[in-house]
């Protein structure tokens, strides 16, 4: 049997993916309108700034039952009106699908929210492991001064449902107060 070298590569230390199945995407600030509480501060910033980048390893087409996707998210450091840069956050379209996240570098929070809007947070850092149950929305927040790099593995038929997060957000926000990350109730989510 002939041994073939894999065309696919994953760098455990920085999360970099390379290979014919690696797909890259970037999220600019302008694409995150409505995500941050302070609309004035948002408007004053450069919409072209890249807030986060996602590398995904997608061997099978999206929606394939039984397959897996693997990826790395890199959330850059920064704030909008004191609120830390974060991902949009989503439920999986197929609600029962779970996901693994693991910290590669940097410091962050993983916000988890169930369908009744009960929210918990986990500290994400190098080597931390996070099992995200089904029926749970998830969002990454970079609370450090460096890039937050996080690995992920999820079912290829999970899909992404951004709808309810876009309209209702999460019930909490993560803000920088005196240099420290603080989780506060989102005033808009009250009631
Ligand atoms: C991750 C996320 C990634 C970007 O790969 O898709 O961190 O976050 P948003 O999708 O919320 O913009 C994942 O959870 N996949 O299922
Ligand atoms: Zn997900």
Coarse morphology: globular
Mean pLDDT, all residues = 95
Helix content: under 10%
Structural class: mainly beta
| Helix-strand string | EEEHEEEEEEEEEEHEE
Query: What is the strand arrangement across the widest sheet?
Result: 3-4-5-13-8-11
Proportion of residues in β-strands: 35-45%
Low-confidence stretches: none
Extended strand count: 15
Any ligands, ions or cofactors bound here, and which?
A: 5-phospho-D-arabinohydroxamic acid, zinc ion
Biggest sheet layout: 6 strands, antiparallel
Counted by DSSP, the helix tally is 2
The end-to-end span amounts to 65 Å
Radius of gyration: 17 Å
What this model shows, in words?
The structure is a single chain. With 191 residues, the protein is mostly beta strands. It has two helices and 15 strands. The N and C termini lie far apart (65 Å). Bound molecules: 5-phospho-D-arabinohydroxamic acid (PAN) and zinc ion. 5-phospho-D-arabinohydroxamic acid (PAN) is lined by residues 54, 71, 73, 87-90, 99, 138, 140, 152, 154, 160.
Give the topology, please.
Elements: E1 9-10, E2 17-18, E3 22-28, H1 39-44, E4 50-57, E5 68-75, E6 79-80, E7 83-84, E8 99-105, E9 108-114, E10 119-124, E11 129-132, E12 136-142, E13 148-155, H2 163-168, E14 172-177, E15 180-185
Antiparallel strand pairs: 1-2, 3-4, 4-5, 5-13, 6-7, 8-11, 8-13, 9-10, 9-12, 14-15
This protein binds 5-phospho-D-arabinohydroxamic acid and zinc ion.
């Amino acid at each position: 049997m002939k041994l073939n070298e894999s065309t696919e590569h994953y760098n455990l230390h920085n999360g970099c993916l390379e290979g014919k199945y690696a797909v890259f995407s970037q999220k600019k600030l302008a694409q995150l309108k409505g995500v941050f509480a302070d609309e004035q501060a948002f408007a004053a910033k450069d919409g072209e700034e890249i807030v986060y980048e996602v590398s995904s390893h997608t061997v099978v087409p999206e929606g394939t039952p039984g397959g897996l996707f693997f990826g790395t998210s890199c959330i850059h450091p920064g704030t909008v009106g004191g609120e830390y840069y974060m991902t949009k956050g989503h439920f999986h379209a197929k609600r029962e699908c779970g996901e693994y996240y693991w910290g590669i570098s940097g410091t962050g929070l993983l916000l988890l929210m169930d369908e009744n809007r009960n929210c918990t947070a986990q500290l994400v850092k190098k080597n931390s492991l996070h099992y995200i149950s089904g029926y749970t929305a998830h969002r990454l927040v970079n609370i450090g001064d460096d890039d937050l790099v996080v690995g992920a593995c999820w079912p290829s038929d999970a899909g992404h449902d951004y709808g309810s997060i876009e309209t209702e957000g999460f019930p909490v926000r993560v803000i920088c107060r005196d240099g420290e990350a603080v989780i506060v109730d989102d005033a808009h989510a009250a009631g």
